[in-house]
Specification:
This protein is mainly alpha-helical. The protein contains 11 helices and 2 strands; from the N terminus they run ααββααααααααα. It folds into 2 domains: about 35 residues, no CATH class; about 120 residues, DNA ligase, ATP-dependent, N-terminal domain (DNA ligase i, domain 1, Orthogonal Bundle).
Length: about 230
């Protein structure tokens, strides 16, 4: 399967990147806590703490990076009352990997509607429910199959565990998935890029198989957190 390479340098398998260290589950937990918090200040504190932790991780990831050979000269000129002029300069270099590592991969997941780099997934609720039933061999006549295929009915009835598609699918599929594997922010973005590319090719079955093989629960948590 061909990877979708965008202009953002974060999508580079070879370079160290903080998004490869930060777990997607950490972001899900953050959004869950924010949704349950009362008041803008409390929500802001949670987000601020998350960003602060990310900065620490970023610093640790690049602790041993070597600075680039390209330097920047900063010159300051000062004129004294006696008319004498003094000049001071400094040289600074930044690691190439630091320059290519940013908070952008997390922003793509926090603000998917603002992401212009990734094309549409082509997986609306009804189509995704149909594909999941087929790929996971869930009987259409079973309770779980009906929940996925008749999402609109589930939504209208407002059952305790089924107020939206992501919630319905989460409770149907969570026991069918291996929850021991925790994926990183970088891995989630890569998978979503792959799904978008396959959608552009019109290969729905292939993209869903790829989707399921990389742990459906993680994607459902992503939808639930939007």
């Amino acid at each position: 399967m061909t990877s979708m390479m965008i202009d953002d340098p974060n999508v580079n398998d070879e370079l160290p990147n903080s998004s490869k260290v930060v777990k997607f589950s950490n972001l899900c937990n953050l959004l869950e806590r924010i949704s349950k918090s009362q008041g803008a200040i409390a929500k802001q504190k949670l987000m601020t703490k998350f960003i602060s932790d990310w900065r620490k991780t970023h610093k640790e990831v690049h602790a041993n990076d070597l600075p680039t050979s390209t330097t920047t000269t900063t010159t300051t000129t000062t004129t004294t009352t006696e008319g004498q002029t003094t000049t001071s300069g400094s040289l600074s270099g930044t690691s190439p990997t630091i320059m290519q590592d940013s908070f952008y991969p997390i922003l793509r997941l926090l603000l998917p509607q603002s992401d212009r780099e990734r094309i549409a997934y082509g997986l609306k609720e009804s189509k995704l429910g149909k594909h999941l039933v087929e790929v996971l061999s869930i009987s259409k006549d079973s309770d779980d199959g009906k929940k996925l295929l008749n999402f609109r009915v589930q939504k209208n009835t407002r059952t305790q565990k089924g107020s939206d598609f992501a919630e319905v699918a989460y409770y149907v599929l969570k026991n069918r998935c291996n929850e021991d594997v925790t994926m990183s922010i970088w891995e989630i973005n890569k998978i979503l890029d792959e799904i978008a590319v396959e959608n552009g090719k019109g290969k729905e079955g292939q993209k869903v198989c790829w989707f399921v093989s990389w742990k459906i629960v993680h994607k459902l948590k992503l939808e639930k957190s939007k």
